[in-house]
Amino acid sequence: MRGAVLYAPGDVRVEQRQDPRIEHPTDAVIRLAATCVCGSDLWPYRGVEPVNKPSPMGHEYVGVVEEVGGDVRLVKPGQFVVGSFFASDNTCEICRAGYQSSCVHREPVGALGAQAERLRVPLADGTLVATPEAPPEDLVPGLLAASDVLGTGWFGAVAAEVGPGRTVAVVGDGAVGLLGVLAARQLGAERIIAMSRHADRQKLALHYGATDIVTERGDEGVARIKDLTDGLGAHSVVEAVGTQESMMQAIRATRPGGHVGYVGVAHGVELPGTELFYSHVHLHGGPAPVRRFLPELIDLILERRIDPGLVFDLELPLDQAAEGYRAMDERRAVKTLLRP
Ligand SMILES: [Zn+2]
Question: What region holds the Alcohol dehydrogenase-like C-terminal domain (predicted)?
Fold first, then answer.
């Protein structure tokens, strides 16, 4: 089969990879309907994370089950399924508490390379959620978004305790930040401040329910949030970048007693203890337990109540994955959908 492999920073190739097969009785093999490039794929692509060996890429996927192992009971060949970036059993104590991305048996799907024609999914019964029937073609991008960026933005909003009457600020205008805005709207936030300097992303943020746009960053961005909130700061801040600057911006834009939901993969973030101590801010985040939210998100998409697929502003055949990475790296695209 064809699949994307990262050889070195800036060097993505689509090449012949070995066909996946059932390796454990709890596995499924799926044929991908669509896959995509994640903002977090850009960390190794840019050389911020080391690339020590040629690495299959991709951890976002929807597709049709082709084959299941002997112990798989819930997932059946022919079903259209959505999964997430950590395979999880969905039965252990951590999973049952809603933290499937820390499942005691978790396996990273990224290591298996979902930017490909087919994918082996471990722990299929716990990981995959089937739609009632094959979805209409125009909903496939939205379901693909649920696989990671929507689930992650949603977790950011939940972790930030977004709810009715709340003022929410979202740091980061990538796909996760934009879908954090969508999540905040769905969860009933009264006011949603999107921090973005790009006109096209501001437009989508407003479409998804942002009430205010702040273009300033860093201390100036924090000052603008304070201006908009009677000097207090937001109740809830979603951090969707993962840098020192964005994390401090999120913490400082939150009022005492408020909550930061941080879902940008942290790179070099160091929190100052004394400032944190006096901030009275709750911090919660990490790799999103997307599996917790998938059934609800799939329903919202199938009922056409949300349209997270709009974050894909570039669609390419899988064979052109390298251009998909380049476009995101150069910020010509928010998010690239790849068609195997
Ligand atoms: Zn588990």
Answer: 175-290
